[in-house]
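Let's practice the habit of predicting before peeking. Look at the sequence and jot down your guess about where helices and strands might fall. Then scroll down.
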Amino acid sequence: MLSEKKCAICKEIKTKEKFYNNRANKDGLSYYCIPCTKRKYYNTKKMLLRKKVLNKYNNACAICKSKDKLVLHHVIPRTKGGKDVEWNLIVLCKDCHLKHRHKNNFNFPNGKCLEFLKL
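Done guessing? Here is the structure:
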């Protein structure tokens, strides 16, 4: 096995430790070096949307205000035609997500209830 490889994005020759493992490729390494892979992932539209939604909710759960283990929740599930758009996403912690993931509305601690659009 070669000790160096050329990255398909930056075209630099780097040691094999600078590449993620990928058993699907003949040499067992990914096509892109680790820095290029990270740069490619973090500049995608989905990551930018994720950052925008997290900022909208102040990096906290919309229900309990926890800042730990946050996930984006689709108000209208993707299986029911919901899209990856800002108005269809809210931030929940993993605990609240497990409690509310199959419901069409959310009861917030202050007594408010958000009713969301139904298809």
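How did you do? The longest strand covers residues 29-33.
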